From TrEMBL:
GO terms for cellular component: cytosol. The gene is LOC114458113. Keywords: Membrane, Signal, Transmembrane, Transmembrane helix. It comes from the Eukaryota. The chain crosses the membrane at residues 225-247. This is Osteopetrosis-associated transmembrane protein 1-like.
Length: 278
């Protein structure tokens, strides 16, 4: 009886599955746009639509957004984002400020209507993504004298690379070594002092790769000298240890011999009855 029930259940399940598979293949997802053209494209009453002023702001936002993204993509590799796109970012920031903080004619604000009227919050999300990107680029880190020195030394190094790259690379390694060392040293110093804008970071990264991978030059990095010093000291540690323990044991041995000689003499002397032993 229960077996019969089970097989019936199985048959039902199978039928159901077949039906579902068929339904899937027969009815593809309905075309959303055709659906919306009939039911949602109708306009809402005037006071629910965004105003002319906000429409204008949205239009400017769009233009500046596209300009900035265009710039970002063109400057993506090798990174020239800070050099090329700072001005278009600041334009985008300005118009976003108009939307989020400022008021237009008749003290009208577009903050609520453009930024937070729905769950998706397209304008807010788009802007906030680019804002994060810009923050992580560190483009706002201040120019210092070190930065300027770094840029000119980097320029000299790259010029040197250009000059020698066609010939024998041994020549290049020898001639550009000093400049490369300088640029590395400067970079190390700047790196320690907090933020580094991505353009410089990337330029240094590429220069290092050129030097060691493309030109196969050895590394006169900052860290080489201390590392060598520490490791040679480490190498000598066992020698020092053995030497000192050797010397120490020699000293002990000498003391022992001295002591035993002394003992023998004093025992002998006691035997002779000249000295008394305690
Ligand atoms: C960056 O801007 C300069 C001029 O401002 C232009 O010549 C260069 O092609 C731009 N580079 C990129 C990658 O957009
Ligand atoms: C944005 O705000 C600034 C300063 O309040 C104003 O000068 C500018 O005209 C505004 N831009 C637009 C498109 O309304
Ligand atoms: C806008 O607001 C300021 C103060 O916030 C007020 O002095 C001014 O009269 C307002 N203008 C309009 C057109 O409401
Ligand atoms: C850059 O300098 C300005 C003022 O000179 C300062 O407010 C800002 O915090 C500095 N930025 C960084 C990243 O140090
Ligand atoms: C930066 O360099 C200029 C000229 O090389 C010099 O006059 C100035 O004092 C330097 N500033 C700092 C903070 O070192
Ligand atoms: C170095 O700077 C000079 C002048 O500013 C420029 O003409 C040259 O292209 C730069 N070299 C490199 C490798 O960037
Ligand atoms: C490069 O030049 C050095 C001497 O300047 C020479 O010893 C070496 O063989 C040369 N290498 C090549 C690939 O020409
Ligand atoms: C870091 O910057 C401060 C001033 O901005 C400077 O006095 C200090 O010497 C810098 N440190 C290094 C390691 O360059
Ligand atoms: C330097 O270049 C390497 C290799 O392309 C990359 O993996 C790394 O993230 C770069 N470092 C920085 C700080 O950009
Ligand atoms: C650098 O060295 C590697 C292996 O040592 C070699 O495969 C490569 O061809 C060399 N590159 C140049 C530019 O000499």
């Amino acid at each position: 009886m229960s077996q019969h029930k089970n097989s019936l259940l199985l048959a039902l399940l199978t039928l159901n599955t077949i039906y579902m598979v068929q339904a899937d293949s027969l009815n593809p997802a309905p075309d959303m746009s055709s659906l919306f053209s009939t039911s949602l494209m109708s306009s809402f009453p005037e006071d629910l639509e965004i105003s002319g002023y906000c429409k204008e702001l949205l239009f400017f936002f769009k233009q500046r957004y596209v300009t900035f993204v265009d710039c970002l993509i063109l400057a993506a590799r090798p990174v020239k984002v800070c050099q090329n796109c700072s001005s278009s970012y600041s334009m985008l920031q300005d118009i976003y400020r108009n939307i989020s903080d400022q008021v237009g004619p008749g003290n009208e604000s577009c903050r609520d209507s453009l930024l937070s009227s729905d769950r998706l919050m397209v304008v807010y999300q788009l802007y906030s993504n680019l804002q994060d990107l810009w923050t992580s680029s560190n483009c706002e880190s201040n120019l210092t004298n070190d930065t300027l020195n770094f840029l000119s030394t980097l320029n000299q190094t790259l010029t040197c690379f250009e000059k020698y790259q066609l010939g024998n690379h041994t020549e290049l390694c020898k001639s550009c070594k000093k400049m490369y060392g300088d640029v590395n040293k400067l970079y190390g110093r700047m790196e320690k002092n907090d933020t580094m804008c991505i353009d410089l970071e990337d330029a240094m990264n590429m220069t290092r790769r050129l030097w060691s991978k493309n030109f196969n030059c050895s590394l006169p990095r900052d860290e080489t000298v201390p590392v060598l010093a520490v490791s040679s000291f480490m190498l000598f540690l066992p020698v020092i240890f053995y030497l000192s323990s050797f010397l120490h044991s020699e000293q002990k041995k000498r003391k022992l011999i001295h002591r035993s000689l002394l003992d023998r003499y004093s025992i002998k002397a006691a035997g002779d009855g000249i000295f008394s032993v305690r």
